[in-house]
């Protein structure tokens, strides 16, 4: 293997690639060749660094300089300055928003300071398409250890003792799940990796598969050994082409190295993995739906019990774990249960990856110890609210989570605390909202998603969510009544109480939590016909001030529906019947004469 | 046997492990309301998707309510079946279902017989507080079945019937969420699918989403047309079920009242499909003996087993799904079509009428018969042998329209010559009946000896697949019976694989045979209804003076005056048919 003095790590995650990350790699390669440095410096496509807000990210190794928002055109300067002259390219360094100082290493950035990377340990560090780099980071050592030194029961005990809980949303103790599957006797058992990440805006699992696919394969093999399964299936949505391609490469390489296939590590244990593609239905993240989809049936859930551990894929015992759960397994087995359980809270151990999105300064993928507060995540890691606006709410747990508010900011994040305050961990979506967001509209937005994604099997979810959406729409149009609020609450509770699967059992959470935490805002829509955030179009109007308007006619010219009339140099008037509230006049007026009421 | 103890509505209950809450509650007289659930006991047919959520109950310690139809009892469970929380949830869910259902009860053909309507009544729903958009679909009118999917409540019973029971695989849930509906692939019309028109989807549909295509108005038009002579034939299973439509107990035989009613409705001649059933036995039995004889003589090309062909749903099934085997079933037409062919030739001649002035109406327990009588090969110059086929339910509606007090009608007899029949013909109405009738005749024709006993108990019953070996005076004949197309498929696959040991197989598309046909009064999931109808059929057989088809004097006369001999030239022309490969007609 060639030895390089320097490595340039270029983020190869989907986000940075979409911002010309691949061109950066190409240009760097070209410039290195032009400078005859191709044998000294290696350009590596890694997985996601997490700091998507500032992507594409390029990291220089060994000095760990962290360049942000790099473009392909920056390649010559990076090579000439950083590599040839040994000077940092100042303009590409991260600027701390508070101190306005340039920060060159990620460990000194607010975004990274409070993070502990366990599941993401290799993301942004190794080339995911090279098994040697994974092995160099102790990859497959846990599998070797388990197969040659431990009984399945011993390995399961480590996982139980570690306190690891399912990262897909349910939070079921992982070791216990393995133990149940192990105890069921059957000719054939399966382990399934749930890579059907469906929460809008969430990309934890995708990033792990893109950045560290071998970690998942290794964990599945360990899972197979522990439960008595010889076949592994990864159910992945077809919308993740990069993750699929890297998984395929990883599977091929692992087979080539004898780390998948027959007689692993010289034992008589056989294990292999196959991919199964999903069409992207949200409900297929629910394990019984996922299994039906893998079997070629309609992706819809069945009542549990029986649980997949007893009767799953093709009626056989099947252990389903999520990508992030698997990513934790090898480290736990190498470092020990005690180490892992020393991180986190009493009932939630280890770390959790979140996809931080919405109105925060630092959007991206983060991994924090359980017990970190929402305030730390949003303000320290996330860098606070965009444009200096006021924090209003944070939605955790994906579309079925609840909206938490100011009063919840100091609650340590773990499974049980989030449920106690009306939300949930989910798979780790976290969307921050500011004062401009109308909470009724937010609830409606999430319902729109669940209406779309309901499978249609059970009546409360199929029809109830639709009716919830329609009632919320009525509220945002100012047509709601006090009785509607009562009905809304009853319907939300009944849908939760009676739905067949987790989708319907949680889909009313955004409604209930916003009704609970923002009761005034609902009341304003109903009683005053007002949207305090000014977001509900039906409840606002654009009005031209007679005093400020000079009659320049610009507004009437940009109005797409001819709603504005008035003579030159005379105050103009907006016809409220015709106005479609597009806001074009408001943006064009140079005199501040148009206001929203 | 492992048992579990639990408490339902504060009452201690002990049940076998694996019992659902629904069944456990029933044991102590607590009826938990259900909508999507349907179970035909002893027939291995159950639909329980747990989708409607009407049967939810409160289980102490569980976060959510549990569906009673799907949740098994566990030790120490504490269940409340009608707490405030449960009743509110149940009613709210019911309101939701109604909010996406047309309020057309006054003009819906299912009104009064609709399980959704009954449930809304039972739950006391007086207003639907949750209103909003309703789904709308184009209506699908095949020759036999009408689909009005606005009325679908996604109970999925039709899907279970079509896929699990019948293995036809035409109906399945399509679209997602609020737009979900059960439909053929790509929401094609049934007529363009591999549908067999067996009507089992209609038989189990709780609402008016799936119904038969109603031909009763056309029948009345023909009756009032002075130029037409209208002949009616009634299938054996109709008389064992029609009474249910008028509140009579299941299994009440109403043959005489039915004849009386038909006459009062204005039919010119009231005949019996049973006559044609006897004729079928003559033809099919002869064909069986012919093939058997050749087989015994060492003919390697002869096809055995012979399969019965009187069920049009079954004919559609093998034409679509086993087109490589269309030379195995008997070529004999079904009794309905044999009747039509004879009525429009032999009998029309007797009346000295042209065939186009004779209208043949059939009353059938079946919906596939509507499709069958419209098939081109059963028409002469565009004039169908059987003009119209109506179901038992449609006849009942006609009787109600005519203001007849059915229960009070005097018994009456069929007209002659096409109204005379034997006990062998009556049992066509139940699974196992056709083959038993065939055995009665084939035995005597083959052995030239009288049968020592007429009741072949070994061929009777409700098991999906049955078999028996009948001793034909030293020659063992292996008989197979299947009812329900899923069971038929198993036997067909055995034949295809060369594993079948049978000489003759009877197949009926509907579970139970014609007594459970898609055109019969709704059984609402009560399998006892089917059992009682079957019992009635065997009683009618037992009460008949003549119980062997070849002894029917009018059949003997028909052969001597008109047809010549069974499977002869004229018979082949009028009473036999051929089958088509329909696989390619399934358009995707």
Automatic annotation (TrEMBL), chain A:
Keyword Metal-binding among UniProt keywords: yes
Presence of keyword 4Fe-4S: yes
Keywords: 4Fe-4S, Iron, Iron-sulfur, Metal-binding
The 4Fe-4S ferredoxin-type domain, residue ranges: 540-569, 570-597
InterPro entries reported for this sequence: 4Fe4S_Fe-S-bd, 4Fe4S_Fe_S_CS, NADH-UbQ_OxRdtase_51kDa_CS, Nuo51_FMN-bd, Nuo51_FMN-bd_sf, Nuop51_4Fe4S-bd, Nuop51_4Fe4S-bd_sf, Soluble_ligand-bd
Xref: PROSITE patterns: 4FE4S_FER_1, 4FE4S_FER_2, COMPLEX1_51K_2, PROKAR_LIPOPROTEIN
Top-rank lineage group of the source organism: Bacteria
UniProt similarity note: Belongs to the complex I 51 kDa subunit family.
PANTHER family: NADH-QUINONE OXIDOREDUCTASE SUBUNIT F
Name of the protein this chain belongs to: NADH-quinone oxidoreductase subunit NuoF
From TrEMBL, chain B:
InterPro entries, per database record: 2Fe-2S_ferredoxin-like_sf (IPR036010), 2Fe-2S_ferredoxin-type (IPR001041), 4Fe4S_Fe-S-bd (IPR017896), 4Fe4S_Fe_S_CS (IPR017900), Cytosolic_Fe-S_CAF (IPR050340), Fe_hydrogenase (IPR009016), Fe_hydrogenase_lsu_C (IPR004108), Fe_hydrogenase_ssu (IPR003149)
UniProt keyword Iron, yes or no: yes
CDD domains in the record: fer2
Residue ranges constituting the 2Fe-2S ferredoxin-type domain according to the UniProt record: 2-85
4Fe-4S His(Cys)3-ligated-type domain ranges (all copies): 85-124
4Fe-4S ferredoxin-type domain segment(s): 143-173, 186-215
Keywords: 4Fe-4S, Iron, Iron-sulfur, Metal-binding
UniProt entry tagged with the keyword 4Fe-4S: yes
PANTHER family attached to this UniProt entry: NITRATE, FORMATE, IRON DEHYDROGENASE
Descriptive protein name: Iron hydrogenase small subunit
Provenance organism: Carboxylicivirga marina
């Amino acid at each position: 293997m060639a030895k390089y003095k320097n490595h340039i790590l270029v983020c190869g995650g989907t986000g940075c690639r979409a911002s010309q990350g691949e061109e950066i790699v190409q240009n760097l390669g070209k410039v290195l060749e032009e400078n005859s440095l191709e044998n000294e410096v290696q350009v590596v496509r890694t997985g996601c660094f997490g700091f998507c807000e500032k992507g594409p990210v390029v990291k220089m190794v060994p000095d760990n300089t962290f360049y942000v928002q790099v473009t392909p055109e920056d390649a010559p300067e990076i090579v000439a300055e950083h590599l040839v002259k040994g000077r940092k390219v100042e303009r590409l360094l991260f600027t701390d928003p508070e101190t306005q100082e340039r920060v060159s290493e990620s460990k000194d950035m607010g975004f990274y300071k409070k993070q502990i990377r366990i599941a993401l340990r290799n993301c942004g560090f190794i080339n995911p398409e090279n098994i040697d780099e994974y092995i160099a980071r102790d990859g497959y050592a846990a599998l070797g250890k388990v197969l040659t030194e431990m009984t399945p029961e011993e390995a399961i005990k480590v996982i139980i003792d570690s306190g690891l809980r399912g990262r897909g949303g349910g939070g079921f103790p992982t070791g216990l799940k393995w133990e149940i599957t192990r105890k069921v006797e059957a000719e054939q058992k399966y382990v399934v990796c749930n890579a059907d990440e469906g929460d809008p805006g969430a990309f934890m699992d995708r990033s792990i598969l893109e950045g560290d696919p071998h970690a998942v394969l290794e964990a599945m093999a360990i899972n197979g050994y522990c439960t008595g399964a010889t076949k592994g299936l990864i159910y992945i949505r077809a919308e993740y082409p990069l993750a699929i391609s890297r998984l395929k490469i990883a599977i091929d390489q692992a087979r080539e190295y004898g780390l998948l296939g027959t007689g692993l590590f010289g034992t008589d244990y056989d294990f292999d993995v196959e991919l199964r593609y999903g069409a992207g239905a949200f409900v297929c993240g629910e394990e019984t739906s996922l299994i039906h989809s893998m079997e070629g049936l309609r992706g819809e859930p069945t009542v549990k019990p029986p649980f997949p551990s007893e009767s799953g894929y093709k009626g056989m015992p099947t252990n389903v774990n999520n990508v992030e759960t698997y990513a934790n397994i090898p480290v736990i087995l190498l470092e020990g249960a005690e180490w892992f359980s020393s991180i986190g809270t009493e009932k939630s151990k280890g770390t959790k990856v979140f996809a931080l999105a919405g109105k925060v300064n630092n959007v991206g993928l983060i991994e924090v110890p359980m017990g970190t507060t929402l305030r730390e995540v949003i303000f320290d890691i996330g860098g606070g609210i965009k444009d200096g606006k006021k924090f209003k709410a944070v939605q955790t747990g994906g579309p079925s989570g609840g909206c938490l508010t100011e009063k919840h900011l100091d609650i340590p994040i773990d499974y049980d605390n989030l449920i106690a305050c009306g939300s949930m961990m989910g798979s780790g979506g976290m969307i921050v909202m500011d004062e401009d967001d109308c909470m009724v509209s937010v609830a409606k937005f999430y319902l729109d998603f669940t209406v779309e994604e309901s499978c249609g099997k059970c009546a409360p979810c199929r029809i109830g969510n639709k009716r919830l959406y329609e009632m919320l729409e009525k509220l945002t149009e100012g047509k709601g009544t006090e009785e509607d609020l009562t009905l809304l609450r009853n319907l939300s509770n009944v849908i939760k109480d009676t739905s067949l699967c987790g989708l319907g059992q949680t889909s009313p959470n955004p409604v209930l939590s916003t009704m609970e935490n923002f009761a005034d805002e609902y009341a304003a829509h109903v009683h005053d016909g007002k949207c305090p955030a000014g977001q509900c179009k039906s409840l606002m109007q654009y009005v031209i001030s007679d005093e400020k308007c000079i009659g320049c006619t610009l507004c009437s010219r940009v109005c797409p529906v001819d709603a504005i009339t008035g003579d030159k140099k005379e105050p103009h008037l907006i016809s409220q019947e015709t106005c479609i509230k597009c806001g074009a006049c408001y943006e064009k007026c140079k005199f501040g004469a148009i206001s929203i009421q | 046997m492992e048992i579990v103890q639990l408490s339902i509505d504060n009452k201690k209950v002990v049940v076998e492990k694996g019992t659902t809450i629904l069944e456990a509650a029933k044991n102590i007289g607590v009826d938990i309301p259900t909508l999507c659930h349907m179970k035909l006991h002893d027939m291995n047919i159950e639909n329980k998707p747990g989708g409607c959520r009407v049967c939810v109950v409160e289980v102490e310690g569980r976060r959510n309510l549990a569906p009673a139809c799907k949740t098994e009892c566990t030790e120490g469970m504490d269940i409340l079946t009608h707490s405030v929380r449960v009743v509110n949830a149940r009613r709210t869910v019911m309101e939701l279902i109604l909010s996406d259902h047309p309020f057309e009860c006054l003009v819906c053909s299912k009104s009064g017989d609709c399980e959704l309507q009954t449930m809304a009544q039972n739950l006391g729903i007086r207003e639907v507080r949750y209103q909003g958009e309703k789904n709308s679909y184009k209506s699908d009118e095949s020759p036999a079945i009408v689909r009005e999917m606005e009325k679908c409540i996604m109970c999925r019973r039709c899907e279970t019937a079509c896929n699990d029971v019948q293995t036809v695989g035409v109906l399945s849930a399509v679209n997602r969420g609020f737009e979900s509906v059960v439909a053929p692939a790509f929401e094609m019309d049934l007529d363009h699918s591999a549908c067999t028109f067996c009507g089992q989807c209609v038989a189990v549909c709780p609402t008016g989403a799936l119904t038969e295509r109603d031909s009763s108005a056309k029948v009345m038009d023909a009756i009032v047309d002075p130029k037409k002579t209208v002949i009616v034939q009634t299938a054996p299973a109709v008389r064992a079920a029609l009474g249910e439509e008028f509140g009579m107990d299941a299994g009440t035989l109403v043959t005489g009242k039915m004849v009386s009613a038909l006459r009062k409705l204005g039919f010119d001649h009231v005949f019996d499909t049973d006559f044609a059933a006897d004729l079928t036995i003559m033809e099919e039995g002869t064909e069986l003996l012919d093939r058997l004889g050749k087989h015994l003589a060492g003919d390697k090309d002869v096809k055995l087993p012979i399969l019965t062909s009187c069920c049009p749903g079954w004919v559609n099934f093998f034409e679509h799904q086993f087109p490589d085997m269309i030379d195995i079933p008997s070529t004999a037409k079904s009794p309905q079509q044999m009747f039509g062919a004879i009525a429009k030739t032999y009998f029309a001649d007797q009346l000295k009428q042209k065939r186009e002035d004779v209208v043949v109406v059939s009353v059938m327990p079946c919906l596939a018969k509507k499709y069958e009588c419209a098939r081109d090969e059963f028409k002469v110059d565009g004039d169908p042998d059987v003009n119209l086929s109506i179901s038992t339910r449609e006849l009942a509606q006609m009787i109600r329209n005519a203001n007849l007090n059915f229960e009070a009608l005097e018994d009456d007899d069929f007209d002659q010559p096409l109204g005379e029949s034997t006990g062998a013909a009556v049992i066509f109405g139940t699974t196992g009946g056709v083959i038993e009738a065939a055995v009665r005749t084939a035995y005597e024709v083959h052995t030239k000896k009288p049968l020592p006993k007429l009741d072949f108990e070994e061929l009777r019953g409700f098991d999906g697949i049955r078999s028996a070996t009948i001793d034909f005076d030293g020659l063992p004949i292996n008989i197979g019976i299947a009812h329900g197309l899923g069971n038929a498929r198993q036997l067909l696959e055995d034949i295809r694989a060369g594993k079948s040991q049978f000489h003759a197989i009877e197949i009926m598309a509907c579970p139970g045979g014609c007594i459970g046909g898609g055109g019969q009064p709704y059984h609402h999931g009560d399998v006892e209804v089917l059992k009682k109808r079957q019992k009635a059929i065997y009683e009618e057989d037992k009460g008949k003076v003549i119980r062997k088809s070849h002894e029917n004097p009018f059949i003997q006369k028909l052969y001597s005056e008109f047809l010549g001999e069974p499977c002869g030239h004229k018979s082949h022309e009028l009473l036999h048919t051929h089958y088509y490969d329909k696989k390619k007609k399934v358009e995707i």
